């Protein structure tokens, strides 16, 4: 395992690949202008959106690796590690990178919305695969930002660049929605596996030893990032992953309340609730009556 290079600033990245810094907080890099691109894993102190235009082997991202297909977008948030760890270099590379520092977003509408773009926390194997038309839309945003960077910086620069990045991210949100739909059969398979996972969990003694299953637990078992899993469940069912787990738990509670030899407290502990009143509160919220009223 090679060393991980920490890049805190946009200028450090530009220096590493050999391009001029036009703005301290944002950069657009056209890889086709470089003779070569040295491989290595980097810990980024800023946001990166990589657009690959040629298949170029595996990229490691966090704990995962996957094949970069042509027209793939990968999103990296500050603090994440990405790159290829083989000490080689790509000659005549193709593709683009958009880099922007969180400081660019301070005081902008985009700064307030960044947490909504959950795809920055997806795993690499959940990258965005685009059609040619979608790729052109994204490329146009890159070119627009690049054109703005080539002008002299003035009082309008920041808001124009931030709004173009926001437009780009809104397009990406739309394309991810399309990807969820086009992968519907795959998603249905994940829903079935999710339901089986919950069934197995409540048939075991895990609720008593571990407690209620979390969204992170389910995502890990299904080999998905929690954010991607949550977005997928929401698109497929209209409910959040947390709500889906709660509804499953309430159905289990209803089944067990039919056994009149068990108290409500016993049912609550069996299902993994730390305190019986937590079950009562959730039951009332979902069903509209308390467990005792339901039983009666």
Structure description:
The protein is an alpha+beta fold and 296 residues long. It folds into 2 domains: 4-182, Jelly Rolls, CATH 2.60.120.280; 185-295, Arc Repressor Mutant, subunit A (Orthogonal Bundle). It is 48% helix and 16% strand. It has helices at 10-17, 109-113, 132-149, 157-182, 184-203, 206-210, 215-221, 226-237, 241-257, 264-271, 276-287, 291-295; strands at residues 4-7, 26-30, 36-38, 41-44, 47-52, 58-61, 64-67, 72-76, 81-83, 89-91, 96-100, 128-129. A 5-stranded mixed sheet has the order 1-4-9-6-7. A 5-stranded antiparallel sheet has the order 2-11-5-8-12. A two-stranded antiparallel ribbon has the order 3-10. Helix 3 (132-149) packs antiparallel against helix 4 and helix 10 (264-271) packs across helix 11 (276-287). The chain is elongated, with a radius of gyration of 24 Å. The relative contact order is 0.09. Residues 54-68 have low confidence and may be disordered.
């Amino acid at each position: 395992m090679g060393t991980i290079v920490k890049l805190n600033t946009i200028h450090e990245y530009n220096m590493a690949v050999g391009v001029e810094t036009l703005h301290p907080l944002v950069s657009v890099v056209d890889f086709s202008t470089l003779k070569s691109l040295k491989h290595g894993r980097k810990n980024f102190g800023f946001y990166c959106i990589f657009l690959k235009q040629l298949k170029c082997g595996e990229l490691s991202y966090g704990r995962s690796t996957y094949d970069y297909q042509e027209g793939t977008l990968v999103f990296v948030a500050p603090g994440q590690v990405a790159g290829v760890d083989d000490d080689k270099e790509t000659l005549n590379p193709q593709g683009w990178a958009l880099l922007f520092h969180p400081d660019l977003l301070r005081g902008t509408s985009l700064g307030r919305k960044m947490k909504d773009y959950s795809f920055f926390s997806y795993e690499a194997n959940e990258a965005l695969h685009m059609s040619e038309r979608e790729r052109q839309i994204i490329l146009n945003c890159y070119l627009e930002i690049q054109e703005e960077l080539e002008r002299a910086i003035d009082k309008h620069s920041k808001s124009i660049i931030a709004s173009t990045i926001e437009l780009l991210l809104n397009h990406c949100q739309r394309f991810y929605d399309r990807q969820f739909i086009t992968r519907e059969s795959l998603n249905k398979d994940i829903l079935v596996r999710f339901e089986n996972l919950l069934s197995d969990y409540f048939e075991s003694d895990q609720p008593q030893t571990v407690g209620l299953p979390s969204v992170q637990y389910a995502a890990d078992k299904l080999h998905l990032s929690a954010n991607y899993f949550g977005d997928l469940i929401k698109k497929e069912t209209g409910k959040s992953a947390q709500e889906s787990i709660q509804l499953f738990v309430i159905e289990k509670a209803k089944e067990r309340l039919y056994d009149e030899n068990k108290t409500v407290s016993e049912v609550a502990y069996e299902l993994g609730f730390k305190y019986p009143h937590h079950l009562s509160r959730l039951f009332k919220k979902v069903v509209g009556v308390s467990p005792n009223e339901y039983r009666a």
